[in-house]
Amino acid sequence: MKRRGRFITLEGGEGVGKTTNLDSIRSFLEGVGIEVVTTREPGGVPIGERLRELIVTEKSLLPEAELLLLFAGRVHHVHELILPALAQGKWVVSDRFVDASFAYQGGGRGMPWQRIEYLEEWLLKECKPDLTLLLDAPVEVGLERARARGEVNRFEDEALAFMQRVRRTYLSLGQRYPDRIKRIDVTQSLPRVQREIMHYLQPLVDAWRE
Ligand code: TMP
Q1: How far apart are CA 176 and CA 178, in angstroms?
Q2: Which of 69, 87, 138, 192 is the most buried (most CB within 10 A)?
Protein backbone atom coordinates (compact mmCIF):
# COMPACT_ATOMS: atom_id res chain seq x y z
CA MET A 1 0.00 0.00 0.00
CA LYS A 2 1.19 3.50 -0.80
CA ARG A 3 2.04 5.89 1.98
CA ARG A 4 -0.64 8.57 2.35
CA GLY A 5 0.31 11.78 0.61
CA ARG A 6 0.51 15.16 2.31
CA PHE A 7 -2.12 17.88 2.23
CA ILE A 8 -0.88 21.46 1.88
CA THR A 9 -3.09 24.53 1.82
CA LEU A 10 -2.39 28.09 0.75
CA GLU A 11 -4.29 30.84 2.49
CA GLY A 12 -4.35 34.60 2.65
CA GLY A 13 -6.36 37.66 1.73
CA GLU A 14 -6.89 39.05 -1.74
CA GLY A 15 -3.95 39.65 -4.10
CA VAL A 16 -1.30 37.85 -2.04
CA GLY A 17 -0.02 35.74 -4.96
CA LYS A 18 -1.53 32.35 -4.23
CA THR A 19 -1.61 31.30 -7.88
CA THR A 20 2.05 32.08 -8.57
CA ASN A 21 3.15 30.34 -5.40
CA LEU A 22 0.93 27.34 -6.05
CA ASP A 23 2.74 26.87 -9.35
CA SER A 24 6.16 27.07 -7.75
CA ILE A 25 5.17 24.60 -5.02
CA ARG A 26 3.99 22.18 -7.69
CA SER A 27 7.26 22.51 -9.64
CA PHE A 28 9.34 22.06 -6.50
CA LEU A 29 7.48 18.91 -5.42
CA GLU A 30 7.43 17.41 -8.91
CA GLY A 31 11.13 18.20 -9.15
CA VAL A 32 11.78 15.93 -6.17
CA GLY A 33 9.67 13.16 -7.70
CA ILE A 34 6.40 13.65 -5.84
CA GLU A 35 3.06 13.29 -7.63
CA VAL A 36 1.07 16.47 -7.06
CA VAL A 37 -2.56 17.42 -7.48
CA THR A 38 -3.32 21.14 -7.32
CA THR A 39 -6.82 22.33 -6.62
CA ARG A 40 -8.80 25.22 -5.20
CA GLU A 41 -11.70 26.28 -3.03
CA PRO A 42 -14.39 27.16 -3.53
CA GLY A 43 -14.29 24.64 -6.37
CA GLY A 44 -11.94 21.80 -7.20
CA VAL A 45 -14.61 19.35 -8.43
CA PRO A 46 -17.61 19.92 -10.76
CA ILE A 47 -20.21 20.51 -8.02
CA GLY A 48 -17.77 22.72 -6.12
CA GLU A 49 -17.08 24.79 -9.25
CA ARG A 50 -20.81 25.30 -9.86
CA LEU A 51 -21.24 26.42 -6.28
CA ARG A 52 -18.18 28.67 -6.61
CA GLU A 53 -19.86 30.59 -9.40
CA LEU A 54 -22.83 31.28 -7.13
CA ILE A 55 -20.69 32.10 -4.09
CA VAL A 56 -18.45 34.63 -5.83
CA THR A 57 -21.17 36.37 -7.84
CA GLU A 58 -24.54 36.21 -6.04
CA LYS A 59 -24.96 39.48 -4.19
CA SER A 60 -28.17 38.50 -2.37
CA LEU A 61 -26.61 35.43 -0.68
CA LEU A 62 -27.21 35.47 3.07
CA PRO A 63 -24.12 34.83 5.25
CA GLU A 64 -25.62 31.56 6.58
CA ALA A 65 -26.29 30.34 3.02
CA GLU A 66 -22.80 31.36 1.94
CA LEU A 67 -21.24 29.34 4.76
CA LEU A 68 -23.36 26.27 4.03
CA LEU A 69 -22.69 26.42 0.29
CA LEU A 70 -18.96 26.64 0.98
CA PHE A 71 -19.14 23.54 3.15
CA ALA A 72 -21.40 21.76 0.64
CA GLY A 73 -18.76 22.24 -2.04
CA ARG A 74 -16.03 21.30 0.43
CA VAL A 75 -17.61 17.95 1.28
CA HIS A 76 -17.60 17.02 -2.41
CA HIS A 77 -14.07 18.32 -2.79
CA VAL A 78 -12.82 16.27 0.15
CA HIS A 79 -14.54 13.01 -0.80
CA GLU A 80 -14.17 13.15 -4.57
CA LEU A 81 -10.69 14.57 -4.88
CA ILE A 82 -8.61 15.22 -1.76
CA LEU A 83 -8.96 11.97 0.20
CA PRO A 84 -8.70 9.67 -2.86
CA ALA A 85 -5.56 11.48 -4.09
CA LEU A 86 -3.94 11.31 -0.64
CA ALA A 87 -4.76 7.60 -0.43
CA GLN A 88 -2.96 7.09 -3.75
CA GLY A 89 0.16 8.66 -2.26
CA LYS A 90 -0.22 11.95 -4.11
CA TRP A 91 0.31 15.31 -2.47
CA VAL A 92 -2.60 17.71 -2.67
CA VAL A 93 -1.98 21.45 -2.74
CA SER A 94 -5.14 23.51 -2.38
CA ASP A 95 -5.56 27.20 -3.00
CA ARG A 96 -7.66 27.81 0.17
CA PHE A 97 -9.49 25.37 2.47
CA VAL A 98 -11.37 25.53 5.76
CA ASP A 99 -9.22 28.27 7.36
CA ALA A 100 -10.73 30.59 4.73
CA SER A 101 -14.19 29.95 6.21
CA PHE A 102 -12.94 30.92 9.67
CA ALA A 103 -11.27 34.04 8.25
CA TYR A 104 -13.95 35.25 5.81
CA GLN A 105 -17.22 33.92 7.24
CA GLY A 106 -16.12 33.95 10.91
CA GLY A 107 -13.85 37.00 11.03
CA GLY A 108 -15.16 38.90 8.02
CA ARG A 109 -18.89 38.27 8.27
CA GLY A 110 -19.06 37.65 12.00
CA MET A 111 -20.63 34.19 11.78
CA PRO A 112 -20.39 32.43 15.17
CA TRP A 113 -17.10 30.59 15.48
CA GLN A 114 -18.65 27.45 17.07
CA ARG A 115 -20.95 26.97 14.07
CA ILE A 116 -17.96 26.77 11.75
CA GLU A 117 -16.10 24.52 14.19
CA TYR A 118 -19.15 22.30 14.31
CA LEU A 119 -19.23 21.97 10.51
CA GLU A 120 -15.50 21.29 10.46
CA GLU A 121 -15.74 18.65 13.15
CA TRP A 122 -18.76 17.02 11.51
CA LEU A 123 -17.59 17.05 7.91
CA LEU A 124 -13.80 17.23 7.80
CA LYS A 125 -12.52 15.08 10.62
CA GLU A 126 -10.38 12.90 8.36
CA CYS A 127 -9.13 15.77 6.28
CA LYS A 128 -6.81 18.18 8.04
CA PRO A 129 -3.99 20.03 6.28
CA ASP A 130 -0.47 18.91 7.21
CA LEU A 131 0.92 22.35 6.37
CA THR A 132 -0.76 25.70 5.72
CA LEU A 133 1.16 28.54 4.15
CA LEU A 134 -0.41 31.83 5.11
CA LEU A 135 0.59 34.41 2.51
CA ASP A 136 0.35 37.70 4.31
CA ALA A 137 0.46 41.34 3.25
CA PRO A 138 -1.21 44.52 4.49
CA VAL A 139 -4.74 44.63 3.10
CA GLU A 140 -4.15 47.73 0.98
CA VAL A 141 -1.18 46.09 -0.76
CA GLY A 142 -3.14 42.92 -1.60
CA LEU A 143 -6.22 44.77 -2.83
CA GLU A 144 -4.09 47.00 -5.01
CA ARG A 145 -2.49 43.95 -6.62
CA ALA A 146 -5.84 42.19 -7.08
CA ARG A 147 -7.37 45.29 -8.70
CA ALA A 148 -4.34 45.75 -10.96
CA ARG A 149 -5.08 42.24 -12.29
CA GLY A 150 -8.67 43.33 -12.87
CA GLU A 151 -10.01 40.54 -10.67
CA VAL A 152 -12.68 42.03 -8.50
CA ASN A 153 -15.09 39.42 -7.14
CA ARG A 154 -17.81 39.91 -4.53
CA PHE A 155 -15.25 39.61 -1.72
CA GLU A 156 -12.64 41.94 -3.20
CA ASP A 157 -15.44 44.50 -3.41
CA GLU A 158 -15.99 44.38 0.36
CA ALA A 159 -15.06 47.33 2.55
CA LEU A 160 -11.49 47.62 3.75
CA ALA A 161 -12.68 46.92 7.30
CA PHE A 162 -13.97 43.50 6.18
CA MET A 163 -10.59 42.61 4.70
CA GLN A 164 -8.84 43.84 7.85
CA ARG A 165 -10.96 41.47 9.92
CA VAL A 166 -10.13 38.63 7.52
CA ARG A 167 -6.41 39.35 7.86
CA ARG A 168 -6.60 39.63 11.64
CA THR A 169 -8.42 36.31 11.85
CA TYR A 170 -5.86 34.58 9.65
CA LEU A 171 -3.06 35.94 11.81
CA SER A 172 -4.76 34.77 14.99
CA LEU A 173 -5.28 31.31 13.47
CA GLY A 174 -1.54 31.33 12.77
CA GLN A 175 -0.83 32.05 16.42
CA ARG A 176 -3.26 29.37 17.53
CA TYR A 177 -1.77 26.64 15.32
CA PRO A 178 1.90 27.61 14.98
CA ASP A 179 2.99 24.07 14.10
CA ARG A 180 0.68 23.87 11.11
CA ILE A 181 0.27 27.44 9.89
CA LYS A 182 3.37 29.30 8.68
CA ARG A 183 3.06 32.98 7.91
CA ILE A 184 4.99 34.26 4.93
CA ASP A 185 5.46 37.98 4.35
CA VAL A 186 4.69 38.44 0.67
CA THR A 187 5.80 42.05 0.57
CA GLN A 188 9.32 40.57 0.20
CA SER A 189 10.71 39.88 -3.28
CA LEU A 190 9.30 36.80 -5.03
CA PRO A 191 12.58 34.84 -4.81
CA ARG A 192 12.66 35.41 -1.03
CA VAL A 193 9.03 34.36 -0.68
CA GLN A 194 9.75 31.22 -2.67
CA ARG A 195 12.84 30.42 -0.59
CA GLU A 196 10.79 30.70 2.57
CA ILE A 197 8.11 28.41 1.17
CA MET A 198 10.73 25.78 0.25
CA HIS A 199 12.18 26.12 3.75
CA TYR A 200 8.84 24.85 5.13
CA LEU A 201 8.28 22.24 2.44
CA GLN A 202 11.67 20.56 2.59
CA PRO A 203 11.29 19.07 6.11
CA LEU A 204 7.86 17.72 5.16
CA VAL A 205 9.36 16.04 2.11
CA ASP A 206 12.29 14.65 4.14
CA ALA A 207 10.02 13.27 6.87
CA TRP A 208 7.71 11.69 4.29
CA ARG A 209 10.59 9.91 2.62
CA GLU A 210 12.06 8.43 5.80
P1 TMP B 1 -10.20 33.22 -4.64
O2 TMP B 1 -9.30 33.91 -3.70
O3 TMP B 1 -9.78 31.91 -5.09
O4 TMP B 1 -10.64 34.11 -5.76
O5 TMP B 1 -11.52 32.86 -3.75
C6 TMP B 1 -12.76 33.36 -4.01
C7 TMP B 1 -13.31 34.02 -2.80
O8 TMP B 1 -13.94 33.09 -1.93
C9 TMP B 1 -12.27 34.74 -1.96
O10 TMP B 1 -12.52 36.12 -2.04
C11 TMP B 1 -12.49 34.25 -0.56
C12 TMP B 1 -13.79 33.52 -0.61
N13 TMP B 1 -13.87 32.36 0.30
C14 TMP B 1 -14.61 32.48 1.47
O15 TMP B 1 -15.17 33.53 1.74
N16 TMP B 1 -14.68 31.42 2.31
C17 TMP B 1 -14.08 30.21 2.02
O18 TMP B 1 -14.19 29.25 2.81
C19 TMP B 1 -13.32 30.11 0.80
C20 TMP B 1 -12.66 28.81 0.46
C21 TMP B 1 -13.24 31.21 -0.02
Answers
A1: 6
A2: 69
